[in-house]
Automatic annotation (TrEMBL):
Region span, Disordered: 30-56
GO molecular function: ATP binding; ATP hydrolysis activity; isomerase activity
Stored InterPro entries: AAA+_ATPase (IPR003593), AAA_lid_3 (IPR041569), ATPase_AAA_core (IPR003959), MT-severing_AAA_ATPase (IPR050304), P-loop_NTPase (IPR027417)
GO CC terms, sorted: microtubule; spindle pole
Official protein name in the record: AAA+-type ATPase
The protein's Enzyme Commission number: 3.6.4.3
Location within or outside the cell: Cytoplasm, Cytoskeleton, Spindle pole
UniProt keyword annotations, A-Z: ATP-binding, Cytoplasm, Cytoskeleton, Hydrolase, Isomerase, Microtubule, Nucleotide-binding
Keyword S-adenosyl-L-methionine: no
Gene3D superfamilies for the chain: 1.10.8.60, P-loop containing nucleotide triphosphate hydrolases
Domain of life: Eukaryota
PANTHER family reported for this sequence: AAA DOMAIN-CONTAINING (PTHR23074), KATANIN P60 ATPASE-CONTAINING SUBUNIT A-LIKE 2 (PTHR23074:SF78)
Length: 405
């Protein structure tokens, strides 16, 4: 068919039957047998280029459901949202991207959640996270090792299905979660409150249920719940809690409880800055609770050396380490940015004083960072997370997980 020739607006019964089988994943009979039974030749139709009304406007299947492993199988063709290939009718279909659902409504919810699957690796290595050796060791023990060596994690040694990362803001909890996804090469669901909260009555509970069904279908998988305190805070604290919020929390607790009773490699990795506001039932299901503390002096020095490399003048790293007690990793990055802005400000002042416009290729280079720039940055930057550090230590003593050093 020529490119300028429109697609047919009506289909034969056989063409509609083939499209229906492709759409809903039903097993089709062999072409030759089917053609002989009907006494006519059935032409193969490429449904990846058109919809049921002949339109060419179709959303890319990768926008509907994502499973990165399928792209590595070398098939070289698109995959429908149910896992069937538009070509190669007699070939065995791949595992479907979505599990079978009882209704189109639930399937639509699953497709919306599939957009929260991270495509590809987050590309965060353990080495890129300075310090936090205890937290990294606990995460490897809880998630990475059971996936690499499942033979050893059976019976009483069944891996923990719920892991909580708690600590001051800006200490690297989200980076640790991305490092887990990079190391394990699992299907990574990056879920926030907006992913599972709906304005329609009953949809929030359905979204939670569908989320865990998708995670089981794509196992081994990791569900990362960022700022989980916004989803499941303590119940019964007041009469102002809405009924929909209680139903959402109950469904999440039920699904979490179901994970602990199965051998499927589905992990729930949660992060919060306010662990004391979590419901006690959720704390019980998050069996491994790991403190992500403020960086130690060795970690702070490694951060400064990485962010502020020495050029012509040796920078006072020891002074920076001594003056940044109580700074989080995010605070240290802001401090380094403030120090790097000082020579740029001097250059901007020089350029603004000149009347003529300097061509881009003739612009002078930014000067090096000096000791005075470090002093100015230290005076202008304040830590943001040190006030409640003692509360995290107290929570870790009461509920946290420790390892033998």
């Amino acid at each position: 068919m020529a490119d300028d020739e429109p697609l047919p607006t009506r289909w034969s019964f056989q063409e509609f039957k083939s499209f229906y089988d492709f759409k809903f994943g039903r097993k089709r009979e062999d072409k030759a047998k089917d053609g002989a039974a009907n006494g006519r030749t059935v032409h193969d139709v490429n449904y990846s280029n058109g919809t049921s009304n002949g339109s060419r406007q179709v959303k890319n299947t990768s926008d509907l459901a994502i499973y990165e492993q399928y792209s590595e199988q070398g098939r070289g063709n698109l995959v429908q949202s149910n896992g069937a290939s538009p070509v190669g009718v007699n070939e065995k279909p791949q595992r479907s991207l979505l599990p079978p659902f009882e209704s189109a409504e639930v399937r639509a919810l699953a497709e919306s959640l599939s957009r929260d699957i991270i495509r590809g690796s987050p590309d965060v290595k353990w080495e890129s996270i300075k310090g936090l050796e205890n937290a990294k060791r606990l995460l490897k023990e809880a998630v990475v090792m059971p996936i690499k060596y499942p033979k050893y994690f059976t019976g009483l040694l069944t891996p923990w299905k719920g892991i909580l990362l708690f600590g001051p803001p800006g200490t690297g909890k989200t980076m640790l979660a991305k490092a887990v996804a990079t190391e394990c090469n699992t299907t990574f669901f990056n879920i926030s409150a907006s992913s599972i909260v709906s304005k329609w009555r009953g949809d929030s509970e359905k979204l939670v249920k569908v989320l865990f069904e998708l995670a089981r279908h794509h196992a081994p998988s990791t569900i990362f719940l960022d700022e989980i305190d916004a989803i499941i805070s303590q119940r019964g604290e007041g009469r102002s809690e809405h009924e929909a919020s209680r139903r959402l929390k109950t469904e999440l607790l039920i699904q979490m409880d179901g994970l602990t009773k199965t051998d499927e490699l589905v992990f729930v990795l949660a992060a919060t800055n306010l662990p004391w506001e979590l419901d006690a039932a959720m704390l019980r299901r998050l069996e491994k609770r790991i403190l992500v503390p403020l960086p130690e002096p060795e970690a702070r020095r490694a951060m400064f050396e990485d962010l502020l490399p020495s050029n012509s003048e040796e920078l006072p790293y020891d002074l920076l380490v001594d003056r940044t007690e109580g700074f989080s990793g995010s605070d240290i990055r802001l401090l380094c940015k403030e120090a790097a802005m000082q020579p740029l400000r001097r250059l901007m002042t020089f350029l603004e004083e000149r009347q003529e416009v300097v061509p881009e290729e003739e612009l002078p280079k930014v000067g090096p960072i000096t000791h005075a720039d470090i002093e100015v940055a230290l005076r202008n930057t304040r830590p943001s997370a040190h006030l409640h550090a003692h509360r995290y230590e107290k929570f870790n003593e009461d509920y946290g997980s420790q390892t033998v050093q």
